[in-house]
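User: Can you help me understand a structure? I only have the sequence.
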Amino acid sequence: MTTLNSELRAFYTARQEQIPAEIREIMRRAGQELADSGQADRALGAGDRAPRFRLPAATGKTVALDDLLADGPVVLTFYRGAWCPYCNIALRALQQHHADIISRDARLVAVSPQIPDESLSLAEKHGLAFDVLSDIGSDTAKQYGLAFDLPDDLAAVYDRLGLDLQRVNDGHPHTLPLPATYVIDRGGVIRWAFVTTDHTTRAEPSDIVAALDALR
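Assistant: Let's start by predicting it. Here is the structure, written out as tokens:
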């Protein structure tokens, strides 16, 4: 069976051939600097209490972590935005496993720094049945230790590619979250965590389901 990360790796390999060498080098250098920063190790992990949040969903309602936890454990995943193809692949994979997650009495929510309109377009395009939340300014990502600022040369590349993060992130174009997924128990404690500086790698849905099973 094809895993999410094997699909991501295949996409990465094919995409490299389409990216000019100069841009590939800027991306590689930025990725290495982020990895060397040690931020992933400093982010919240298993055993930490999950910071509470209240964030707008793509549908216009407000979603609070406390309300989600009242119904059972929560799977909380952070992604960069609809403009990120790796994020789209990962979110589609989560949708494919959504039934497995809710059958364990858990709720899945995805958080990005993009505006609700962008989240709504994403949810509709991929048929996402879970809430997609907007963390404008990455305040929630900061509480989890995930927010970082793009280096200027990489931000300039994204501008050249027409991503318009100034608009989709509502005036916070350079701040993004590390890819991360948390399983939070009903008491608000993180019981399982996946955090990485590598945006081409994500938590395997099967590992998330196994972490939920471990709570039972």
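Now, to help you interpret it: Residues 44 and 181 are 11 Å apart (CA to CA). The first helix runs from residue 4 to 16. Let me know which part you'd like to focus on.
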